[in-house]
Every structure is written in C-alpha cells, then in structure tokens.
Amino acid sequence: MSYLIKFEKLPWRDFMKKIIAVICIFSFLFMLSACKQEPAKPALQFIASDNNELGCVELTRDGIIYRPFGIIGEKSMRGEKIGIRGGDSSSSIFAVKDYSWDEWILESDEGLMPAGDMLFKAVGVTEIPVEFEKYKEYNY
Question: Quick one: which of 40, 63, 121, 134 has the most CB atoms within 10 Å?
Fold first, then answer.
C-alpha cells in the first residue's frame, strides 16, 4: 500500500480548477477594461480668411463666421480644446467656459499672440456678456 497521495485523487481538485479558471477570467477582463481608451476626437478645422472690407481675419466653421472681439490675458476662460486654425497645430481653438462655442471661441497661438488669447465672437451675436465688455477692442 502506497502512502503517497496522488493529486488526482484529492476531493478538492475540481474545486481548485474552477477557482483558478474564474480568477484567470476576471484578471483578463480587468486587464481589458484597464486598457480601454476613448478614441481621440478629431480636431475641428477652423478656416482663416482675410476680410479686406473690415480689415480683419475671420475664422469659419460649419458656416459660422467668427470675428475678433478682444484679447484676454488670462487663460482661466479656456474651456476644452475644440480645434485648430487651418492645418496649423500650433494654433489651438478653445471653447469659452460656460458659453456656447457656436457664439464665442478663443484662439491661442503662443508664437503669434504672447499677450494672451484672442476672443472671437460669431457674426449675429448681439448680446455681449458683461464680463466680456472689458475685453472689447474691435467693432465688427
């Protein structure tokens, strides 16, 4: 009679196989969920064009024309980055915090505008928020 107990004959063998299988499955699922990343949103292209009649540069997106309003020195009004100017990745377009970017946007280009961000107003916007009045430099 052999005093060696074979692993195959132990009663908990099937139970341990199930536990190991469950742990492996949950570990695999956890690793998959940790690797999940949101796809990057494509940057919107804002087209810059010269308006010789008004003497300003306009930005256009989806039929909305934006004209310069003024320069904002602080970056605290920047919302999320929504696009770039033309194909220039150094020029970023941001939404203005708490405002629709169908009406107001900010353009930042550290090389061209070291003094701050240019605030643009969409053509047709008639109500100027009180907090923007102090930045008004242009009457387009």
Answer: 121
Q: Which residues pair with 50 in a beta bridge?
A: 57
Provide the pLDDT for residue 57.
87
Domain residue limits at 101: 44-135
Tell me whether residue 104 is in a domain.
yes
DSSP 59-117: EEETTEEEEEEEEE--STTEEEEEEEETTEEEEEEEEETTS-TTTEEEEE-TTT-TT-E
Backbone angles phi, psi at 8, to 5 degrees: -65, -25
Which CA distances in Å does 44 have to 74, 88, 100, 124, 137?
A: 24, 12, 15, 21, 26
1 in any annotated domain: no
- 3-class SS at 26? helix
Residue type, 16: M
Is position 2 within any domain?
no
